[in-house]
Every structure is written in C-alpha cells, then in structure tokens.
Amino acid sequence: MAKYVIMYLSNEKGVLLLAQRQRRRTKTRTVVDSAARNAAVLSDGCNPEFVKGAEFDGIFEIPIIKKPKKYQIPKQLVPFSKMAKADPKSFAVCEYENDREFRDLLLNPDEYISIIKEYQGFITPDCSVYRDMPLALQITNIYRNRAIGYCFQKHGVYVIPCVRWGDERTYTKKVLPEKIAFLGVEKHSIVSVGSYGQLKDKVNRYFFEAGMDSMMETLEPEIVLVYSKMPDNIEHKYPDTKFVEYPDWTSTVRKEQEDNGGRTDALACRGTLQWSVSSL
Predict the structure, then answer these.
(1) Rounded distance, CA 215 to CA 188, Å?
(2) pLDDT number for residue 258
(3) DSSP string, 24-41
(4) How far is CA 50 from its chain centroid?
(5) What's the whole-model pTM score?
(6) Are the beta carbons of 158 and 190 closer than 8 angstroms?
(7) How far apart are CA 226 and CA 107, in angstroms?
(8) What is residue 160's predicted lDDT score, i.e. its pLDDT?
(9) Which residues in the chain come in under a pLDDT of 50?
C-alpha cells in the first residue's frame, strides 16, 4: 500500500497533480487494461465531446482556436511532464517533449483544465507529425492539437496554438487543396513553434524553414513563440513579427542550477511546492 507524504508551500492544485500522477505511475497496467482504454477512445470517435460547440476550418473540419483579445507573452515555458516543478506565475505549459509524456492530457484533458488554468498559458499539444508518417496520421495529430486547444480555450484557459507541420503535403497545396498544418489557427495572432532538434542537419533544417516560410505567408502571425532557437535568416525576413525565444527545459534547469550553486531543487521550491513519497 502506497502512502503519500506531501508538504506544500502554496500550490494546492500542484499537490493534487503530483499525487494524481504518482498514483498513475504506481498502478499496474496490463496489456489488456491499455488495450481496453485505447479501444474506448477510438470507439466513441476520438472524444467528440472535446469539440462540442466549436467552429471548424477547411474540408477536414479542424477545430478553430480563436485569436485572444489581448496577448500574454509567457515569461518561461515548462513541458507538461515537468509542470509541477515550475511556478505557475512565471511559466506557461507546453508539450515539446515525447508524446508519451503527455498521453494522459490527450486522453483526459478535463482532469487538467483547472490545474493548467493557474499557469500563464497553455500551448496546444505538439503531437508528432513526422514526414514519414502516412498523411492520414499527420492530419489526425494536427486535429488532436486543435481539439485539445479548443477544449481548454472553451473552459477559460489562455491558449496559444502550437503549429507543427510534417512533409510538404501538410504545408503546401501540391496534394491537398488546403495547407492542413495551418488550419484551425486564425491569422494575425500569436502562435508557437518548436525548433528543438530541427536544425541539426541540412534535411531537417530545409523542411523546418520551408514550413516556417509557408506558415508566415499563410497566417501572418504578429507574435511567434519559439521553443529553442529561430534561425536568424527567418527573423530577418519577417521584421514585422515579434519572435520570442525560450530555452529548452534541459537548458532552463542547467541555468537554474548554475545560478543557485549547483542545487537541483531550485525550480521545485520557488513558490510552488516540495514533496516526497514513501511506501509502507
């Protein structure tokens, strides 16, 4: 029997999240359990209740995330799996990490709405859109990104669309009549992109920059939040757009450690919470 000993400073919802996630980690899941849960998600049409009341964009009916009335630029970004370690007053939640780290969010977004509402904002899930994926799966993950974003926005969360493209079929009209990667995002608004790992070789860099150019042409965003670095040539081409760069989480933690004499608990203790778990 697991017994949770939790000492908190201020963020009670953060404590709830930690306890909830720990229960999920310690619960034994069989192959049958996982299969049943996944089957339930598929059998009811991939949670159509998430987009109840939404407006849709394009022939694939991608849910639309509305442009905010007032822009809020987050001070810092924290991945979903690390959000309990970050001060909600200083961080917005993103999902620039492996898809398995935010699987619970995709399956049960309603469990996290009240928690994420405490943060500076929510960047929609960066569901994988790989170039070697079948086009149907690329479209599916773009849809899931907007569906979760719409669901959170409907419940009062400040939502920033994460724009992710795959192969050129998603950001050009060479195959489809629409640029599917940009559907569901309003023009002249605020968006987020992740360049982490996209600039290391010529091939990935080519597709990243080609998609960026297409996004800038199509959406004409006023603000672009960048998880990691934006190539200088992109910023120089679009002087009317404000680009805001954020370090990846590993770099954020490393800098925090350096600023605090090598201590690793600085982010966890700064105005958020301390916790420990013991088993009896």
Answers:
(1) 11
(2) 79
(3) HHHS---HHHHHHHHHHH
(4) 16
(5) 0.80
(6) no
(7) 26
(8) 98
(9) 1-10, 22, 25-32, 35-36, 39-43, 266, 268-280
